[in-house]
Design brief:
The chain is an alpha/beta fold and about 375 residues long. The protein has helices spanning about 25-35, 45-50, 55-65, 75-85, 100-105, 115-130, 155-160, 180-200, 215-220, 345-355, 360-365, and strands at about 20-25, 40-45, 70, 90, 110-115, 135-140, 165-170, 205-210, 225, 250-260, 265-270, 275, 280-285, 305, 310-315, 320-325, 335-340, 370-375. The chain folds into two domains: about 25-240, TIM Barrel; about 250-375, Beta Barrel (Lyase, Ornithine Decarboxylase, Chain A, domain 1), CATH 2.40.37.10. The protein is built from eleven helices and 18 strands. α5 crosses α6 (about 115-130). The longest helix has 17 residues, at about 180-200.
Length: about 375
């Protein structure tokens, strides 16, 4: 009986079937665009694995740029950044669990505060550790996800200032529709600036922040001296007018694993959603929804890019593979690289056909897709 061996020189690792090429030089270029548009300080948002691009690698690159903060969603992401040797200030963008707060105080990460109970708990842990913790006041100006509502805010701030182990270093809020509702967003900026004035003015806070990528690109920042770019750093503008200024960071690739000739009347993929009407040259590509490519593009006219041309996807995207029509392209052969999205087929196009958003496409690229970094 043949004994199965681990990977050795006799059984080399095969090339990946699906991989994402991450251009760190493009990441730096997009950061420079953000700095050109906004003269204040920046918090680079690296949550959700740096939008699927690789948390540790992206954090290392951005840390060298002297940013005010790296923004993460939770303590687990903050730990990974520290374990990677990155010493940039870390800001926790959402509410924290009570069980996490001792560590947050010990490590000096900056949380945002949405309730008096949360603030009192942080103050308790800081007192036990003999420390003073910088915190930001989160204010709900329309997102409805977290933060203090505006009513009685001066009174609340007064109560927070009585907690001896907390420093109210900043104030922030979030834009729910900067890429969809300009009128509401402009009112939200006005409201946020009015809140700051009601609390003592800009001199009361070291940091004042409201904008995500769309807010940074499309609006006057008012009193804000800190902005939180996310999507634009990864090469996609939420406002179409700025897209040409940004460089593609992630190119998702696969390769042709099989080429066959199918006769007319032959079904392709599950459910026979597509049936050939003529002899058809069909390529199987080694990527599917198990890698994060959205199944919802099936039957929506999505293409891939091979040898400088578009080829349409046939039938349903499966877990590990998809099929494309190669009819008339005799030069495409097994092993050829395939661009799934990137500089030639934008991730925005794929999101539109999948009836979702770019954020979901990026963060949905699964761990089995190898990330390959270059600059």
């Amino acid at each position: 009986m043949t004994r199965l061996e681990a990977v050795t020189d006799s059984f080399p690792v095969s090339p990946p079937r699906a991989w994402a090429e991450i251009d760190l030089g493009a990441l730096g270029k997009n950061l420079r665009v953000a700095r050109e548009v906004f003269p204040g300080a920046l918090m680079a948002v690296v949550k959700a694995g740096a939008y699927g691009h690789g948390l540790e690698e992206v954090a290392r690159v951005l840390a060298a740029e002297g940013l005010a903060f790296l923004g993460v969603a939770n303590v687990g992401e903050a730990r990974r950044i520290r374990d990677a040797g990155v010493q940039s200030p870390i800001y926790l963008l959402g509410a924290t669990w009570s069980a996490e707060r001792e560590e947050i105080v010990a490590r000096g990460w900056t949380p945002c505060i949405s309730s008096l109970a949360e603030a009192e708990d942080f103050n308790h842990h800081a007192a036990l550790q003999g420390k003073r913790l910088n915190v930001h006041l989160a204010v709900d100006t329309g997102m409805g996800r977290g933060g203090f509502v505006v009513d009685h805010l001066p009174e609340i701030l007064h109560q927070l200032e009585q907690l001896p182990h907390l420093t109210i270093e900043g104030i922030g809020s979030h834009l729910p529709s900067a890429d969809e509702d300009e009128a509401f967003t402009r009112r939200q900026f006005e409201r946020f600036c009015g809140i700051i004035e009601s609390l003592g003015g800009a001199e009361r806070f070291k940091w004042m922040h409201l904008s995500n990528s769309a807010g940074l690109l499309g609006y006057d920042q008012g009193l804000c001296n800190l902005s939180r770019p996310g999507l634009m750093l990864y090469g996609v503008s939420p406002l179409p007018g700025f897209q040409e200024k940004l460089a593609t960071v992630m190119t998702l690739k696969s390769r042709v694993t099989l080429v066959r000739e199918l006769p007319a009347g032959h079904g392709v993929s599950y459910g026979r959603q597509f049936v050939t009407t003529r002899p058809t040259r069909v390529a199987t590509i080694g990527i599917g929804y198990g890698d994060g490519y959205p199944r919802h593009v099936s039957g929506k006219g999505a293409d891939v890019w091979i040898r400088g041309r578009r080829f349409p996807i046939l039938g349903r995207v499966t877990m590990d593979q998809l099929m494309v029509d190669l009819t008339g392209a005799e030069d495409v052969v097994e092993g050829d690289e395939v661009e799934i999205f990137g500089p030639n087929i934008s991730v925005g196009e794929i999101a539109l056909k999948a009836e979702t958003i770019v954020w979901e496409i990026f963060t949905g690229i699964t761990p089995r897709v190898l990330r390959v970094y270059h600059s």
